[in-house]
Amino acid sequence: MKNMRYLVLLLVIVCLLFAQQDVEEMMKKMQQQVNSEIQKNEEAVRRYISKNDSLFAEFLKNEWKAFDTQEGEKRKELPKPEKIPEIPEIKFEYKEYVPVEVYLPELDVDTRISPEIKPPEVTVSEVAKYEGIKVAFYEKKLDFRYNTETKIQVKKPVNDKSIPVYWEEMSLVETQPMLQQIEDYADKLGLNDYGKFLLVKKIASQIVDDEESRILFSWYLITKLGYDVRVGYGPGFTVLMVPSNNMLFARPFLTVNNQKYFIFNFYDDQPKKFNTLYSYDKKHPSATKYFDFSIPKLPEIGSYDHQKTLKFKYQNQTYDLNYDYNQQLVNFFNFYPQTDYSVYFKAPVAPQTIYNFAKAFKPILSDKTEQEALNIILRFVQTAFMYKTDNDHFGREKPLIPDETLYYPYSDCEDRSILFSILVEELLNLKAIGLKYEGHMAVGVQTKSSPKGDYVNHRGNKYLVCDPTYINANIGQSMPRYKNKSITVIDF
Questions:
Q1: Domains of the chain (ranges, CATH numbers)
Q2: Is-contact 229 186, C-beta < 8 A?
Q3: What pTM value is reported for the model?
Q4: What is the tens place of the pLDDT at every residue in 49-70?
């Protein structure tokens, strides 16, 4: 009987082993089927991409046209004042007591030091030869693997014959792992479309040897990233042109099928106009995206390892405000394309900057009413910086985001208005709007109290006029020369 039990047990074990083998074999076959389907899909995608590239190359061989370029449009506004008015400081009567509380954000990590960026994991072909480089992108050193076959030199001269050949040669080379790395780094660094453009430009400069080939290398990669970027050429020059969701000012453009394409000189940050250039009027089938120059977040490209002290006076008392700034951020925005004012009003302030100013203002505003707190922040923006127009300061029109205004010693009315509006919203949690006059800008603030002064009605709400460029003016005081002028509201 005992032997019988052992025999039964042995038979069960044998059956289980065979069953396990059957299951493993079944799972193996299923995985093979899945891999086969994946390979079929990948091959279908490759065929689709290859077909689009071939059709685009054929189009490029035949469809080049001469386009007249146009001067960049200027903002339609009167000249800004060369000097700004200053009045004696008058004590404001705070009749209504509405307390304020300055929000001090918590920083989970020390945001002064920019974290290291881990390189993305990519799968490359076993046939292609890849090499690694360190891409110096502002403070960051990015590990980047590239296919050595992409070091293609365009045949000279650059024209309607050599450009299609370059596209055909590049389309035969594996670039998907490179595109994947660009997208991954752009996401980790918080880059918008313009930042991604600069990253591609930097990669091109470290991989490709000559200038014209770098431009075409960037054109190819940006197109394959899905953007409707165009290339144009003329006697002695090659340029890239991009359509934009935002209006770009002071930048030459050409019009293709009723769409503006703004010219970017690859190695010249200052816009340059060319009378006539040759380009094409059809996009690559997969390149449908326009550039978006809005700034949803600030690029994480450097550390807040520099310190600065700003001084301002209020009611005969001097205050010192210390904060950390990011030099790389200033460098990034130095030649940022000039765009709609709403982009600058919507641009965020770095968490480190807000933390510094909330920490500095909290003891100053701790026992103040809403109205006096507004006045103190207004006086800070009025008196902590010297005034210069953009043309006198930079030699060109250049609106600043708040982190730039805090860095530079000079600013003008729109820079101060943008800074004041975000400080009011971040520190006091009050809604602000931009007030655009002809040749001037101020801010409207929706207060919880009801101080006397000048107001603007917007969408059923009253906004108290606050002018960061009218030195020593209190809240509710408009600059006299603009008091009865028409206003365009910038609501963000």
A1: 65-72+115-279 (no CATH), 306-490 (3.10.620)
A2: no
A3: 0.87
A4: 588 999 999 999 998 999 999 9
